[in-house]
Amino acid sequence: MASYPDEENEFDVWRFVYICCAFAIILPAVGALIWYVVEITIKSQYSVEIGAVVGLDPATDLQGGKGALNLAFNLTVTLAWRSSLRGACVTPGATVTLWYASDEEHPLATGLVPAFCVGPQESREVLVVARGADVSVPGYLLQGLADGIRLGQVMFEFNLVTPVDKENNRIDWCRATVVQKASCNYIGDSPA
Prior knowledge:
Blueprint: H1 3-40, E1 45-54, E2 69-80, E3 88-90, E4 95-100, E5 109-112, E6 116-118, E7 123-135, H2 139-151, E8 156-163, E9 168-176, E10 181-183, E11 185-191
Antiparallel strand pairs: 1-2, 1-10, 2-7, 3-6, 4-5, 4-8, 8-9, 9-11
């Protein structure tokens, strides 16, 4: 009967070895699966910077009672991609629309963003000119816009709309003053 406990101990040692081997295989596999899921769900990060504005001179363009404005915004649109598995692209047909004071009913300018791609963990900037022809700014916003331009503190808002497929668009929203780079926030997809 003295040999029987030794057989139990030997069985327990082998069971322990098998369990350790199983964990040594399963844990890295689960870790790799979690890493992969995180990598494929990473959203691209957009930012927009206003380099210059034409047509918003407070002394000439923003006088009370002035009719329509002809605007041009020199923008830098940046796509930064953090995934190490694959790159990302801005698809043809992407647009950037900007407005003042959350007044989405009266956009100031729209520009077409050229299609471009970045590789894994890369970023790239493209220049975009957003134009607005015969833009009318409601009177209640005009003075605030003129004061903000004079002080260099006017806040513009942007929607960057990127076609995802034939039926959906990706929408990112940003806020920036002139010569300030603003990170955009992904706000969702919408029907095309």
